[in-house]
């Protein structure tokens, strides 16, 4: 039997919590690997942590300044030579969602020949992990550098992922503070002809903010999955939030519906999230007709407006926890500083941009601790090629 098929079958047949052990056994027997380790990116995207039976993990590896971290950031295999052995660091990524790094140590004599197969095996491992997470907490635990608050647990479980890529676009997103997030959220759904994207800023703190966001996002998903246009999605979610809170709490959300073939975008601006656009080297805010947040009043009607995106455009969406953050001297971050931070990321892929912008925000704030949720989502638009 082909050794790649053997590895793939071993992963598919392994118990959900034993994927790494099953892969280690087959790589040792079929590929003469000396060691195999899976490192998961933590929620804050600051360290890589080993998947092991021990929780929390006793060892972690910094994302910056390490070989494995370079493989994660570049999304390419990175190889180290140590005597007669080669250590290969392989990104574990599923449809653009970056999960971690598979590190395999093997004899240098065979490394170059089998490296392409190991890259494919890392991809299979990522798919199997996502399936296995329905039945085990092992891989979710490995992502935790610290304990999540209950509100943060609810928010992370609500998210679709942290990055996504298709020929027409690439998406990346990050929340801060990762382990104590309250009400900020993002959601997306890719179809054959459309991409729908929501940027959400829920009012309040702690579990109440998380409950509000959960209600709003699930109401939007329910309407979206019924095939309803985004202006009516907003109206139905508005009714759901108002029916429960009677106007005492409301949800700010920016809804976007991208037509993949043309770049036309329908937008409903119902609250505080903002959008910046980088076209060429010019970064500017894109303003929409402001409408009421979801749930503020009963039976609010929403109207969608249209814009166009062009191949090469970069769109960056932020919550008020980004543009309203004050420095120790009292100066708010603001549109000018945000535009400068976005311009500085022009050479980074979309998945790296949110983390880079949030680092700039931390410097402005004067410390790593955020008093309010901060959300950054980046979308690079490539457009659909003729005949694709």
UniProtKB/TrEMBL annotation:
Tell me a Gene Ontology molecular-function term this record carries. Answer: protein serine/threonine phosphatase activity
Q: Which domain of life is it from?
A: Bacteria
- Mind telling me what this protein is named? PP2C family protein-serine/threonine phosphatase
- The Enzyme Commission number assigned here is 3.1.3.16
Source organism of the structure: Streptomyces gibsoniae
Q: Where is the PPM-type phosphatase domain?
A: 166-381
Sorted alphabetically, the keyword list is: Hydrolase
């Amino acid at each position: 039997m082909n050794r790649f098929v053997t590895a793939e079958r071993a992963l598919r047949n392994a118990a959900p919590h034993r994927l790494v052990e099953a892969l280690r056994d087959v790589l040792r027997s079929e590929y003469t690997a000396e060691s195999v380790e899976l490192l998961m990116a933590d929620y804050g995207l600051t360290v890589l942590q080993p998947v092991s039976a021990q929780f929390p993990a006793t060892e972690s590896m910094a994302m910056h300044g390490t070989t494995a971290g370079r493989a994660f950031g570049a999304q390419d295999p990175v190889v180290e030579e140590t005597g007669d052995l080669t250590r290969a660091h392989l990104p574990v990524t599923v449809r653009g969602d970056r999960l971690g790094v598979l590190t395999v140590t093997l004899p240098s004599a065979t490394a170059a020949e089998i490296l392409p197969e190991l890259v494919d095996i890392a991809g299979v491992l990522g798919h199997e992990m996502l399936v296995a997470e329905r039945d085990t907490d092992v891989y979710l635990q490995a992502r935790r550098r610290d304990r999540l608050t209950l509100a943060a647990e609810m928010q992370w479980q609500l998210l679709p992922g942290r990055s996504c890529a298709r020929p027409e676009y690439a998406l990346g997103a990050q929340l801060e503070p990762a382990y104590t997030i309250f009400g900020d959220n993002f959601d997306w759904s890719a179809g054959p002809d459309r991409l729908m994207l929501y940027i959400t800023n829920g009012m309040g703190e702690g579990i109440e903010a998380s409950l509000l966001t959960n209600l709003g996002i699930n109401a939007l998903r329910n309407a979206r999955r019924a095939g309803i246009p985004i202006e009516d999605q907003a109206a139905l979610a508005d009714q759901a939030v108002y029916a429960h809170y009677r106007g005492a709490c409301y949800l700010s959300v920016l809804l976007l519906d991208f037509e993949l073939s043309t770049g036309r975008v329908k937008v409903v601006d119902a609250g505080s999230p903002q959008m910046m656009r980088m076209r060429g080297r010019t970064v500017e805010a894109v303003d929409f007709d402001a409408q009421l947040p979801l749930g503020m009043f009963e039976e609010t009607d929403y109207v969608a407006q249209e814009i166009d995106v062009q191949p090469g455009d970069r769109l960056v969406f932020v919550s008020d926890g980004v543009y309203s953050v004050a420095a120790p001297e009292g100066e708010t971050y603001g549109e000018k500083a945000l535009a400068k931070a976005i311009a500085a990321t022009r050479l980074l892929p979309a998945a790296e941009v949110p983390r880079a912008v949030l680092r700039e925000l931390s410097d402005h704030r004067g410390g790593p601790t955020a008093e309010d949720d901060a959300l950054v989502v980046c979308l690079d638009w490539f457009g659909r090629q003729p005949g694709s």
